């Protein structure tokens, strides 16, 4: 089908950069705050997302000291006074430093003021194991999904990244966006080995995507496989293999982690009767546990086989490739779990 | 420890202005004393952190602010709220947990707020408001307004990372933030000398390129003058300012603390330098008022407070349906 719409293929990092640029051009209240984001000749943040923006917006690209607690608090204060900051950390692991400002201030100001305050704060954090050992690698989603007042999303394609970032900037609540280092498509010195292509054809015109909806990536009747970020891609690869085995897997990219879109996931489970949740990160206390419990409560009578979680071992992220590869859920484990359930 | 100067210099201030400062301090004192009584007799739920003896800090600083300026406060925030113009009613109703309180009963003592009067919700993590105020001031600078963000905190905040990170960013970006450290000398039960090696808090600010000043925090006019100069500097684009207001926490840290760790002579010395008594004496000695008139001020405030308490007792409570509202904007 041909359309009159111009489309370009862009990487996830380029898509985020385009969305930030357009939002800053649209609204003078939008600005960026973070480490190494506005240094001429520098990196554009750790993964090139804000590369070159300081040339176009010299007054609205605020380069910070290495002080995550402080500049997340600065973001909260600016947001309370009507600005719309986009704050990022170089690695998601550093969110622990900013935890007080995110959880005690950003997420609670609206509630504890009886609805008087708004904190329209966008926070971006790269996660995922990528050969950097234990402290530049964790999947941090689990620590934030149970924080009332905070919206948590995970973007796994360039198309979604643009629409979700724009929606987050325009939302009046704090929104934490997780991105995966292997999906950016960063180039040059910031390129990642083992990267997965998450680029998309993107229309020129403006669009936003809902912050509370999962996306069905592939339809199938036999088993539902839910992933997000890297595991959304791994789930699709597993579905290809399962198709060769005669099993039709339905793949869902959870996208919205708080709130979790139980409607979409549940409708799929209603159809397949089987659910696998694929999570990068320790199995214990993960997002997968919350999805499993929520589906059990809502659709327990539709489940034909015990819900499975394909997740990482309960260990810190290891460095050496042989162990890191064993840590990250992979296609063979997802495929095997699905076959066991279907043929079980 | 430096002792405060006993004599207050009234300079050539307008008598009405001076009487206003006096009344505002008495309002805070009687509010806190009344609230203490209500808690002890079990009328109110929750906990309280009070500011009797520190009234000159809140009143002196807020007198130097415009209504369009903003403040951040802490868990010990009743005085700041009253000084910024919140009403006794909206605060008492909040303390009673009523839906008519300033935060509809969802904030309580530690999160007093009124966004129409320039007060964001008080932040009960001791240094949590420092980077927030830096961000508020950054917003004013980016929006090119002439507003100032005044950030109240105590000596208990100065060892937290948020204090140093927030102050540093305010300094490097030259934002119009006024940081006010009410040094009441105790962080919970620990004396400030046990948590820092310098003689004053103010001198630490030189390491951030800020000229920190120590001021007698029980002299409301000294506080006002220092704050006015600092606010003027902020409005002139001369970056952040820092005041260390030396005062004393004569109440317990919270509601059931009997302060056994405070030496009696020290307590007595500070009781003798009460900020309200000192201003009252200066006003009577200058012939601006009489002790009878000052007594009348206090009585009028007490009558009005008691009327507020009676109203508070009949305010509507939130319903269970309100539990899940306001989570998101």
Q: In words, what does this structure look like?
A:
The complex is a heterodimer of chains A (344) and B (329). By secondary structure, chain A is of the alpha/beta class. Chain A contains 11 helices and 14 strands. Chain A has helices at 12-26, 53-56, 68-80, 95-106, 109-112, 158-170, 230-244, 262-272, 287-299, 321-327, 331-343; strands at 7-10, 30-34, 61-63, 84-88, 122-127, 151-154, 175-180, 200-203, 215-218, 223-227, 249-253, 256-258, 275-282, 308-312. The radius of gyration of chain A is 20 Å and the shape is globular. With 329 residues, chain B is an alpha/beta fold. Chain B is globular. Classes of the chains: A alpha/beta (344), B alpha/beta (329). At the A-B interface, helix 3, helix 4 and helix 5 of A face helix 5 and helix 6 of B.
Strand count, sense and barrel status of the largest sheet of chain A are:
7 strands, mixed
Q: Using the 3D structure, state the CATH architecture of the largest domain in chain A.
A: 3-Layer(aba) Sandwich
What's the CATH C level of the domain at 45-252 and 261-275 in chain B? Alpha Beta
Distance between the termini of chain A: 42 Å
State the shape of chain A: globular
| CATH topology type of the largest domain in chain A | Rossmann fold
Strand content of chain B: 5-15%
Task: Give the integer mean of the pLDDT values of chain A.
Answer: 96
Order of helices and strands of chain A: EHEHEHEHHEEHEEEEHEEHEHEHH
With strands numbered from the N-terminus, the spatial order across the biggest sheet of chain A is 3-2-4-5-7-6-12
* CATH level-four homologous superfamily name of the domain at 45-252 and 261-275 in chain B: Thiamin diphosphate (ThDP)-binding fold, Pyr/PP domains
Please bin the fraction of helical residues of chain B. 40-55%
Tell me what portion of residues of chain A adopts beta-strand conformation. 15-25%
Q: Sketch the major β-sheet of chain B.
A: 5 strands, parallel
Number of domains of chain A: 2
Oligomeric category: heterodimer
CATH architecture identity of the domain at 45-252 and 261-275 in chain B = 3-Layer(aba) Sandwich
Would you identify the regions of chain B where 5 or more consecutive residues have pLDDT less than 50? none
